[in-house]
């Protein structure tokens, strides 16, 4: 089942994966899909937008007579990931507090 992941969180997930290594499109999609149930077609528009924002750069490598397009995190992308991580931490903590309810009376 595919779920709707907020845009900024999906951006952060892609940028986070790319901190480990460069990935070509299909492999990157599979890497994200191991953790989030998103459709395969979801990630390519995200990658185009992240590249347009200057957060990713691309290069092509030959593979079995074809080219694979690899995505690499830029310094600007790393800075954006830092912002997203901080925002996620605040958001996650607030949601956890709300989900747990008033634990002080227990």
UniProtKB/TrEMBL annotation:
* Classification lineage: Bacteria, Bacillati, Bacillota, Bacilli, Lactobacillales
Q: Show where the Transcription regulator PadR N-terminal domain sits.
A: 14-82
Record's Pfam families? Answer: PadR
* Protein name listed in UniProt: Transcriptional regulator, PadR family
Origin superkingdom: Bacteria
Q: Which PANTHER family match?
A: PADR-FAMILY TRANSCRIPTIONAL REGULATOR, TRANSCRIPTIONAL REGULATOR RV3488
